[in-house]
Amino acid sequence: MSLFDWFDNRKKSSPISQVQQEREIADGLWTKCESCGVLAYTKDLRANAMVCPECSHHLRIYSDERIRQLIDPGTWVPMDETLVSCDPLQFKDRKSYSDRLRDYQEKTGLQDAVKTGTGNIEGLRLALGVMDFRFMGGSMGSVVGEKLTRLIEHATENQLPLVIVCASGGARMQEGMLSLMQMAKTSAALERHRDQHLLYIPILTHPTTGGVTASFAMLGDIILAEPKATIGFAGRRVVEQTLREKLPDNFQTAEYLLSHGFIDAVVPRTQLKATLGRLIKLHQPMPNASDVFKGNLGARPATLS
């Protein structure tokens, strides 16, 4: 037996090789935490809202999982599922924008980078938008802006509270000025929603940056964020070069923004649904005094002479 054969036999019979083979067999059953490296049973991890039980690291989740976590079963009604971009600028870099869109649609099963609809949270009806970072980094183009604007207008028309879960790298460069226009469009729709004294809560997840941060992500009545989420407009290096000074290590984290008054609360994902339920319940519109008087107290009492 040659030396090479001996090494091959050692490799085949080594415990490390056996463990690797077992992990390959059990692929999908276990998930490795990208922060602490602990292997967790995927089913248990999903039951814990995809939060590592060892280090509390919040693993990245996408729109389908987020809706499952937040919305009461059987109450989700999607909106504008067939809305797609038409490549208005005929943009092309290494590949055409239309081909890139098609690739992401096939890869993710999504039409674009946001899902919108209505559903219940703890029995309370609301309008919900969930951005999905898988689709071109959650970038905001004309479809994302249009879907969110239609969602906001639907919430305004039907007197619903609004929640948008943000996860984005910013505006989508392949649509140029049309992407930048979405900031104004969504902001105007939110102002009309605010004029009706309706609640809007953005949830900032990792990452929320660029034009999304500059527009609807920071316009909420109550702004929530997940722990250690990266939140900012320009990148850290750009800011350091502009200011010509070293920034703190926790700069542009949810905790840093909370300490400086940019957001209202950092909420662990395991508590997010209950927190939203309480906030929405607290901000339910009060009935008119005359309606309560007539509906609950019966006929108006005679005035004393």
CATH topology: 2-enoyl-CoA Hydratase, Chain A, domain 1
* Secondary structure category: alpha/beta
Strand order of the largest sheet: 3-4-5-6-7-8-9
User: What gyration radius follows from the Cα positions, in whole Å?
Assistant: 24 Å
Shape: globular
Q: Spans with pLDDT under 50 lasting ≥5 residues?
A: 297-305
Average pLDDT score: 88
Second CATH tier, the architecture? Alpha-Beta Complex
The run of helices and strands is HHEEHHEHEEHEHEHEHHEHH
Termini distance? 117 Å
CATH superfamily: 2-enoyl-CoA Hydratase, Chain A, domain 1
Helix content: 40-55%
**CATH C-level class:** Alpha Beta
Tally of extended strands? Answer: 9
Supply the number of helical segments: 12
Biggest β-sheet strands, sense, barrel: 7 strands, mixed
What is the count of structural domains?
1
* Strand content bin: 5-15%
Pfam families: Carboxyl_trans (PF01039), Zn_ribbon_ACC (PF17848)
GO cellular component, one term: acetyl-CoA carboxylase complex
Domain CoA carboxyltransferase N-terminal: 29-298
Cofactor: Zn(2+)
